[in-house]
Amino acid sequence: MAPTSPSLPTGPDARTTRLALTGVVVTVILWGGNVVLLKALLSHLNAESINTGRFLLASAVLVTLAVRAHGWPRWTWQTWLTVAGVGLLGNSVFQTLFLIGIRLSPAGVAGVVNGLVPVLVLPLGLLLGQAVTRRQAAGVGVAFAGLLTLLLLTRQPGSPVPLAGLGWLLAAATAWALYTLFNRTLSGRVGALPFVAFSLALGSLPYLLYAAPHVELAGTPPLAWAGVALSGLGANVVAYLAWARGAQVLGAARTSVWNTLAPMVALILSAALLHERLPLSVWAAAAVILGGAALANWPGRTATPPASGAPEKAPTG
Fold first, then answer.
1. So where are the chain's domains?
2. Shortest CA distance to 308 belongs to which of 238, 258, 255?
3. Where is the protein found, in the record's own terms (predicted)?
């Protein structure tokens, strides 16, 4: 009798793939919609109140999930400090910069600038010795051409895109891009869910200590707190878990391209729900930026290491 050949590994079935893709689409909608939700919440609550609620809720849920799935981390004190330091950059620093920027800018523009994060990761990675392919470099160039156009639009009289707001948003995107670079290494060492959970919990502590005296409790509409809960659970918990599952089933390269649709969701929702009326020139600049981001992150042979299951985009934006 002829020897039987060993069975070959098979990929995920159609139902698993369909569910993972659905989760990624939901994530894109949550991330894009979260920018609009934050802009709306700023008319009822200050940034300190919004972030305090989001941080506490998301940290509690993610840490509980991480400990249940993996147990309490047995890291060295150096690892705890590193996770806390990277979390400080990706949470306290990023959130401070981002909410200042979104308060000064239209929500649609904030979503577009947030979409630059996957593009900013590439040139910043060069500083850490990571290689970039020609296609990625071309995508970066196209995206920055769109950004330059957006920057020039801020100089026009009556422009809805203020230079100060754009500057804060770019600083926030840079902070999250740096967080993403460290994320790739640390989540591979300690696990994606434990890293995200404890980097959020530890990294937000300085912000919470600063924000505590400024939290507004009296006179706030219950619907506003419901929005804070939706933002914390939707963009930071549900979206993260769905995105991680999508990256696991579909692959990080295929999943990352969907990031470029989140800013478009923010633009559409800001026009439909907040009645933002951005000129055609802003939409054109946004299209160039998102086109460059898609080109830089399109699946293919890449020189940079593949990302882990952790999100490559800011879950809050």
1. 17-297
2. 255
3. Membrane
